[in-house]
Structures are given as structure tokens and as C-alpha cells.
Task: inverse folding
């Protein structure tokens, strides 16, 4: 008998509601627990392994880099970092040219907030209700959910929250001192709410006209997840800054803020010891190459549409709405989602919540159709169950 659970419970800080599984191995869209039981992973580490678990191309890149050079701060040039910076420029909207590399989504948001204040000389931000941007003090200040914030106040002042997809409310919330508008294109943690084209185009035009920076948080939506390399491509958005993380490096921790030439910084104004280290850069290069070579955005689009179509053919009276864009899927129930998430786990399918009534699916974009059919079957079975 192993003691892993006991050790985590006893020696870890209890910040997570544990799912009762000890995962020890993964391959593409399947993970194994310590007893050898298999699960279809429709969480992918919260939308991290878009390219699948234990991806061979990334494993090879990491292995080679580990034997070559693991660390190299930004004071020195580095081959892998140089190539990744160029790559990020090439795959992001034309408005974006230069990147700051860091280690997580929250760090990318922190950097973007500082860059916005430094560039504009203004202090305030407008963000969306239900928006999520991370747990550190700045990112938390930009996050809407009061339950995440209330025990940690005072947070950073100057953040105003407006309803998502409502341009008039956003327009009214802007003041002389607004540095930037910060939005997700699809609200992930907030319940998989998809932004409207018309809304985003109006917001973009308004920001341009009034000298307000537009920051888009693509931490969850980036790297093929929504059926495009980045969700901004659905609307041809040209933001001033774009924050990415989760799917960037195939599971290695990394974040980035990709900025337009209008974002001005100077040496010493920000930094990170680990940010842009050669290991993460090598993993990101291999991961992005894999995404491009295998057209994972195209795969996400097709597979997401397939799941939606299949679910719509079933009679599921508990379901209020299915929201889907690529392989970012929210199944909103008329009741609490937690018992169904637990039941799915018992059936060998791992999914995650998004708010209290939404079942969220973020599988690897490489998931096989055969497994999708099993997931659809299990979802149908669990959601059709009689009440106990
Ligand atoms: C996960 C997430 C973050 C925070 O990323 P971390 O790497 O957990 O700090 C920020 N924004 C969005 C949209 C996210 O989904």
C-alpha cells in the first residue's frame, strides 16, 4: 500500500478539492491511476496538454535540452528563446510583434497589467463579470468572482467589472484614467461563455479611438483549443497585448505576453528568473510545431462540432444549454454539476466543472474519435440517470 494520498493530505496545503485519484501516467487522451485503472481525460490538466499527454516530439525536445542547457536568464541571448520569440510573432495576429516570456497564466496577466500602466501612464482597468485571470494579487484584482477575492482584500484598486457581451455597459465604465480593457474571448472558468463578434469588434474600435489598450486573455483559448490557433482569429481581432500560457509548451509551465510595437518598456521595469528558460522554450517550439503540422486547430473544430451534434441527438432533459467552440465545451445543467462529474469519473471519464452548474470538456485536441464516442456514451448514460 502506498502513502501518496496521506502525504499530500498531510504535507500539502489543502487548496484543492481532491478528486480521489492518484494519477501516475498518461498517453495522449488517456491517464492511468496508481491501481492501473484507465480514464479518458477530458480535462487535459485544465486545458494544458492540447497535444496529448507524453507527446513524443515534446518529450524528445525536453530530453535534448535538459542535456544541453537548462537555464539562461534574459541578460544573455539564447538560441531556443530567439526561435520561440520569432515563432510567437509569426503565429499571432499581425498587430503583435514582441513577447515577454514567463511561467504561468497569472504571471502573464501581471506583466500585461504593468505594461499597460507603464505604457499609458493611466491607472484603471475595465474587466468582465464572470471573467477569470488568475490567483495572484494583480490577476485576482482583474478576476470577477467575489468568493475568490473576499478574504484577500485590499486588492489592487482601479478595476471595474461590466457584463460580458454588452458594449454599452463597457463604454459607460471607461474613464479618462482607463489604461486598458482586459477580456477573454471565451470565458472558460466563468462557464464557457463565448464572446460575440459584433461585441468584440465594437470594443476594439472603441479602444482604438479612445487610446485605450486592448488586452486579450488567451490563456485557456490559445494554441488551437477553439478551432483556430488563437480565439481572436474568429473575429480578426488585433489586440495590443495577448496573454497565453496553458497550452503553450505541451505541459511544461510557461506563459507569455505578446505585445504590439506600441507597448513600451525599458530595462529594469519587469523581469523573471525562470521566464524564457531554454527548457520551456524548447518544449514550446516542439509543441507549436506539432500543433501546426497536425492541424490541431482544424481537428479541434471538427471534433468539437461532432460532440455537439452527437449530444444534440440525445434526449437530455437535465441539460439547459450546450456551449461549444472547438474543443472547449460547456454543458450547462438545470441542477448542480458536481454529482454528474463524480459519476463520470466512476465511469472512467474525467471532466471538470466551470461554475456550479456547468460540466466542462477540454480534452487533448488529439483525442481519438473512438474515445469521443465513449465520452458521448458515458455523458448520455450519466445525465439520463434516475434521481437517487
Ligand atoms: C487558467 C487561467 C489563468 C491563470 O493561469 P495560471 O497558469 O493558473 O496562473 C488566467 N486566465 C485564464 C483565462 C485562465 O483560464
Result:
Amino acid at each position: 500500500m502506498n502513502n501518496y494520498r496521506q502525504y499530500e493530505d498531510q504535507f500539502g496545503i489543502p487548496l484543492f478539492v481532491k478528486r480521489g485519484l492518484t494519477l501516475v501516467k498518461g498517453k495522449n487522451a488517456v491517464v492511468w491511476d496508481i491501481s492501473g485503472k484507465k480514464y479518458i481525460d477530458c480535462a487535459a490538466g485544465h486545458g494544458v496538454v492540447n497535444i496529448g499527454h507524453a507527446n513524443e516530439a515534446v518529450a524528445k525536445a525536453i530530453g535534448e535540452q535538459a542535456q544541453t542547457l537548462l537555464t539562461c536568464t534574459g541578460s544573455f541571448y539564447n538560441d531556443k528563446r530567439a526561435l520561440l520569440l520569432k515563432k510567437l510573432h509569426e503565429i499571432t495576429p499581425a498587430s503583435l510583434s514582441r513577447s515577454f516570456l514567463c511561467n504561468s497564466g497569472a504571471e502573464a496577466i501581471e506583466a500585461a497589467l504593468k505594461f499597460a500602466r507603464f505604457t499609458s501612464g493611466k491607472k484603471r482597468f475595465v474587466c468582465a463579470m464572470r471573467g477569470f485571470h488568475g490567483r495572484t494579487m494583480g490577476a485576482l484584482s482583474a478576476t470577477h468572482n467575489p468568493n475568490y477575492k473576499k478574504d484577500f482584500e485590499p486588492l489592487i484598486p482601479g478595476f471595474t467589472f461590466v457584463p460580458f457581451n454588452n458594449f454599452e455597459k463597457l463604454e459607460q465604465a471607461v474613464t479618462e484614467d482607463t489604461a486598458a480593457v482586459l477580456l477573454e474571448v471565451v470565458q472558460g472558468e466563468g462557464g464557457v461563455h463565448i464572446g460575440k463578434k459584433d461585441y468584440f469588434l465594437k470594443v476594439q474600435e472603441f479602444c482604438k479611438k479612445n487610446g485605450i489598450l486592448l488586452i486579450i486573455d488567451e490563456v485557456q483559448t490559445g494554441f488551437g483549443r477553439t478551432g483556430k490557433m488563437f480565439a481572436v482569429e474568429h473575429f480578426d481581432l488585433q489586440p495590443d497585448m495577448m496573454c497565453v500560457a496553458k497550452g503553450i509548451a505541451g505541459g511544461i509551465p510557461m506563459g507569455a505576453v505578446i505585445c504590439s510595437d506600441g507597448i513600451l518598456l525599458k530595462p529594469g521595469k519587469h523581469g523573471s528568473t525562470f521566464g524564457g528558460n531554454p527548457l520551456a522554450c524548447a518544449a514550446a517550439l516542439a509543441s507549436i510545431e506539432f500543433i501546426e503540422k497536425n492541424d490541431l486547430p482544424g481537428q479541434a473544430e471538427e471534433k468539437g462540432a461532432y460532440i455537439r451534434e452527437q449530444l444534440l441527438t440525445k434526449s437530455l432533459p437535465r441539460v439547459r444549454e450546450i456551449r461549444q467552440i472547438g474543443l472547449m465545451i460547456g454543458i450547462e445543467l438545470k441542477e448542480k454539476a458536481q454529482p454528474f462529474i463524480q459519476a463520470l469519473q466512476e465511469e472512467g471519464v474525467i471532466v471538470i466543472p466551470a461554475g456550479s452548474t456547468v460540466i466542462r470538456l477540454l480534452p487533448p485536441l488529439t483525442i481519438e474519435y473512438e474515445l469521443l464516442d465513449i465520452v458521448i456514451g458515458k455523458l448520455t448514460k450519466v445525465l439520463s440517470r434516475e434521481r437517487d
User: Anything to note?
Assistant: The chain is about 35% helix and 20% strand. The chain has two domains: 4-54+297-384, 57-293.
